[in-house]
Amino acid sequence: MDYPSFPGDYRENIEFPKKRCIVNYMDTSLHEPFNEDEYNRTIRGILKSIPFIDCGGFVITIPTSTHVTIPAGMSYDWHSHPYCEFSYIRAGEMIFRTREEILRRREGDVFFMPQGVEHRRGNDATACTIDGFMMEFHSTGGVNINNAVNAFAMKNHYTLSLPAAAKEHYASMQEEFSRRGRFMEQRIKLLIYDILYLMLSENFDELFSGRKSAVMDAPMRVFLAAKELIESQIAANISIKDISKALSLSPNYLSQMFRKAGELPCGKYIQERRLIRAYQMIKENPTMKIREVAESLGYTDELYFSRVFAKRFSLAPSAVRDNDPF
């Protein structure tokens, strides 16, 4: 399969390991011990150098990822995610419930939960180890991509197919992390890119269009440029006026282009990103108080922040750490 290039593509300069095998993360032969926190920090840092993956009819951005081992019997209450959750079951079994059905996924399966879908993990679940990427879909072809993704996920009972090559790439990621070689970050970046591209092309082929086109349309270029500014200045109460000035565009043109590509008005998107950033900060900083999170993102009223947060995620800010393993 031919893959489109992305900024900083080192494919021509790097040799991947010639020998690859599927390695179970619960096998500590490569890691004694395997440091999940260090691995998560490494992968999340690498993701920052992958601005997006262009799939022709849509692009995806990857705000975060996780590798986590969930003990048997640990339950999580009803909650939803601010992004699409792509979880590869490396070991064990995962049992989740949506409002409509019970989902049982075993080692080697892929669990896919669209943003906004409420789900929970009961106390009957066994131990499992999960590698997950949190993704956002953005349309480049005028289709409401999130509606299409949600419909696909529901139709397929929140399960995706993962090609054998992608599973081998997961094993190679672990090998690269273990070796800590000179080009570890570049190699892992390419592996992540290929894993997600293989998975997307396998499952969402009907959404791909013009797959080999290297030209991205104007709305998506504007959207991605604005998104980068919003992400970097999310705590500074950045406004549409600030973004349009930085990009040398009129506010009206910015709003039009943003809405075509992002499926949300720019103002609502900024609010959405602030709440998503709050979600991530609460989860990744266990000692940080909710008030401190709110203030760091420009919310002066903690009660108001808690109210809009709960409305968005069906979960109080204080409950995020207890109800979301990702």
What are the main properties of this structure?
11 helices, Jelly Rolls, 2 domains, nine-stranded antiparallel beta sheet, single chain, alpha+beta, disordered N terminus
Summarize this entry quickly.
This protein has 326 residues and is an alpha+beta fold. 41% of the residues lie in helices and 18% in strands.
- Any idea of the CATH class of the largest domain? Mainly Beta
Instruction: Give the end-to-end Cα distance, rounded to a whole number of Å.
Output: 31 Å
Q: Which term fits the overall shape?
A: globular
CATH superfamily of the largest domain: Jelly Rolls
Query: At the third CATH level, what is the topology name of the largest domain?
Result: Jelly Rolls
User: Percent range for helical residues?
Assistant: 40-55%
Bin the strand percentage. Answer: 15-25%
Oligomer: single chain
Low-confidence stretches: 1-33, 210-215
Main beta sheet strand tally, sense and closure? 9 strands, antiparallel
Q: What's the number of structural domains?
A: 2
